[in-house]
Structures are given as C-alpha cells and as structure tokens.
Specification:
The structure is a single chain. By secondary structure, the chain is an alpha/beta fold. The chain has one domain (about 10-230): 3-Layer(aba) Sandwich (Rossmann fold). The protein is built from 8 helices and 7 strands. It has helices at about 20-30, 40-50, 65-80, 105-130, 155-175, 205-220, 230-240, 240-260; strands at about 10-15, 35-40, 55-60, 85-90, 135-140, 180-185, 225. Strands 3-2-1-4-5-6-7 form a 7-stranded parallel sheet, sandwiched between helices. The longest helix has 29 residues, at about 105-130. It is globular, with a radius of gyration of 19 Å. The mean pLDDT is about 95. The structure holds NADP nicotinamide-adenine-dinucleotide phosphate. The site of NADP nicotinamide-adenine-dinucleotide phosphate has 28 residues, from helix 1.
C-alpha cells in the first residue's frame, strides 16, 4: 500500500523547530517533497544541515508576516513542482503576561505571526489549489483556540481566530465541492523549546507523538485535530458545563499568577485535578 504522503508537495511554515521540524522530518521520511520554512537564515541553515541526507527537502527563510514573502514562497514551490498538495501554516509565537504590561507592538507582533501569517498562507495557496481542484490546508491553532486562558490574551485571540477562520472555510469549500480540505490543529502542551530550562508539564506530549496524531488526522481529513485525549475530553466537558468552566478558570488564573507572576516561572499545566469528569 502506498503512503498517503509519498510524492506529495508540502510546505511547512515553522519547519525549523519544534512541531514543524518533527513534522517535516516525518514527511521527508514518508517520501514527501517538503519545503521547510523558518523566519531566520540561521535556523534555516541549521535545519538544512540536519536534513542534509534528504534529497526531497527544500529550504527557505520566509517571514510569514510579509504577504509578499509568503506569496513568493508558494509561487516558488509551484514553479518548481507544478502544484501544492499540503500547506501546514504552523509557524507561531507564544506570549504570556499581564495584559496591561503588553505594549501595542507586542500585541501586533503576535497577531502578525499567528493570524496574518496564516491568512497570507491561505490567500496565496487557495488560487493554486482551486485550479488544481485539490489540496489541503492545515492551520495550527491550540487548545487556547478552544477556551480562554488567563494571562494569554493575545495568544488566545489569535488562536481562536485561526480556529474560526479554518472552520468557516472548511464548510464553505466542502459545500462548494472545491476539492480543498481544511484542518485545524489544536495541540495541548507539546515538548518543544518553549519548555527549555523549565520543568516539563506532566501533561505534555512528546513531539513525535504529536506529529503522529497530527498526520493521522490529516490523512483522515479530520476538521479538528485536538490532542492529547484527556485535554480534549476536559475542554469538551468545560465547554458543556459553564459552572465547571468558571471554577476551572478561577483556579487556572490563581495557579498561573502564583507560579509566573510571583515566582517568574511559566505555568503550563492544566489543573485537571480540580474537575471530575
Ligand atoms: N508546543 C506547544 O506546546 C504548542 C501548544 C499549542 C500550540 N502550539 C502551536 O504550534 C505551533 C508550533 O509551535 P512550537 O512549539 O513547535 O514552536 P517553536 O519550537 O517555537 O517553533 C516556532 C517555529 O515558527 C517559526 N517562526 C516564528 N516566527 C516566524 C515568522 N515570523 N515567520 C516564519 N516563521 C516563524 C520559527 O522559525 P525561526 O526560528 O526561524 O523564527 C520556528 O520554526 C505554533 O503555532 C504554536 O502556537 C504549540
């Protein structure tokens, strides 16, 4: 049986680190032609060195906050290969802190990468995929796109927006039968460099496991890919039970405040312990 991803043309933004890096590596192993994208020459060069044994890998430094650069990324790929099968809009940046301490530049930076970066990718890929009559756009949101964590206002805003726009386009394109599929990826904690130097949360998923879950969902053309399972279950419960959501959020705010604002440590774990499902 042939592998779904074998011979496919794929772009992975944020492919130089974390989830995107592991995703690129797995797709390269499975025979895809992968354009590995990072924003900095330095990280792109590093990825190029570590993927040097793969002749099916291409690399480019593309700042996803530039519409022109993202358009060029898609144009270059299509000029080289004639089409584009999968676009993973995975690049993203985190941000946490007290909302009043965030400058407008901080708000704008996160919106530009996490939301405009995805919009530019979709805008550049859609005409190509419509012409092909096929293609799959996979946008990375977060569990922060499914509920609203305290001290992560702008990150939460962008991830809700990514989830909303992807779901909107998913139904639109399915209804019109354009042949273009859309998936939203909502990871819980995944072990990437965001946890460098701090204690890895107990509920964090190893990055290779995250990639297997994501690719299994993409293969099935799942609209929403939410993981890990226990976090998915927790969020479904909270969204269906407003009283539990309130109780959970009050405790999440308290633990975040105590660990981050008082001790200067990132609080990443979800307080699963306070809700009985
Ligand atoms: N890890 C988690 O626990 C977790 C949980 C939920 C959601 N997510 C989401 O999953 C995605 C990947 O997260 P990660 O933890 O794997 O991140 P990561 O290890 O920090 O990697 C981020 C990637 O995004 C790229 N990037 C950042 N700004 C960019 C820009 N302006 N233009 C192009 N590329 C840019 C980086 O490239 P350079 O280094 O070259 O800038 C890097 O390759 C993000 O969207 C994140 O929000 C992660």
């Amino acid at each position: 049986m042939t592998d779904t991803f074998e011979g496919k043309i794929v772009i992975v933004t944020g492919g130089t680190s974390g989830i995107g890096y592991a995703l690129s590596e797995t797709l390269l192993k499975r025979g895809s032609y992968v354009w590995v994208i990072g924003s900095r020459q330095e990280s792109v060069l590093k990825a190029k060195q570590s993927f040097s044994k793969y002749s099916n890998a291409q690399f480019a430094a593309v700042d996803v906050t530039s519409a022109d650069a993202v358009q060029k990324m898609v144009d270059d790929c299509v000029n080289e290969f004639g089409h584009l099968d999968y676009l993973f809009n995975n690049a993203g940046v985190g941000m946490m802190g007290q909302s009043e301490d965030m400058t407008l530049d901080m708000w704008k930076k996160v919106v530009e990468v996490n939301l405009w970066g995805v919009i530019y990718g979709v805008h550049a890929a859609l005409p190509v995929m419509l012409k092909q009559g096929s293609g799959h756009i996979i946008n990375t949101s977060s569990i922060a796109g499914l509920f609203s964590r305290p001290y992560r206002a702008v990150y939460t805003a962008t991830k809700h927006a990514v989830k909303g726009m992807t779901e909107s386009m998913r139904y639109e394109h399915a209804g019109r039968g354009t042949g273009i599929a859309f998936s939203t990826v909502c990871p819980g904690n995944v072990v990437t460099k965001i946890f460098d130097g701090i204690e890895i949360p107990k509920d964090a998923v190893p990055v290779d496991e995250a990639v297997n879950i994501i690719l299994a969902g993409v293969e099935k053309k799942d609209g929403m890919i939410i993981f890990p399972k226990n976090t998915k279950k927790l969020i479904e419960h909270l969204n269906a039970n407003p009283n539990d959501m309130e109780k959970f959020m009050i405790e999440l705010e308290r633990r975040t405040r105590v660990t981050y604002l008082e001790k200067g440590e990132l609080y990443a774990e979800l307080p699963h312990d306070i809700i009985k499902i």
